[in-house]
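Example record for the data management plan.
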Amino acid sequence: MFVVVSGTNRRDSASARIAAQVALHLRAQAQEVELIDLLGLSPEVLHPDAYFNRPACMEPYQAAIDRAQGMITVVPEYNGSFPGILKLWIDMLEFPKTFLDLPCAFIGLAAGTWGGLRPVEQLEQVFNYRNALIYSQRTFIPAVHDALDEESRLKDEVMQGRLQLQLDGFVKFALRNPRVR
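Corresponding structural encoding:
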């Protein structure tokens, strides 16, 4: 099973739309997928005691990642970095086991020219610290608001091809590097 994370809690986000397309692509490859949208994250994670008494709302997220063969995070660029809600969500997951030896891939997106390069590189540092297995091929989607059609698919065939190449390669990578628990 693969987990696909939409890395923001913004309503009607481009991240959620791209994450849904990623899930469709993986399902077309006969992969089981669980889509995680941080829009559903409970406000109880904001309580200062949440770091010591993990809220029950985190249990389904933890269980999904514990079962996962791999995880793909679609991360938007907010102010030159990744969204704070994504970092908080990561912080609420069990340390150190959650990402240990978990194959992980990243898709960056931004309204600007660089397509989320900065947040992906910063997020990779966090995942490296948490001992994830980072898949080296990344996809960056610049000018994301103009990049999607009415059905939230990438308009540009070259960009579609890059994303498909990344996803196909990542599935193979994850299956070659099974998680040992």
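Summary line stored alongside the record: The chain has a mean pLDDT of 95.
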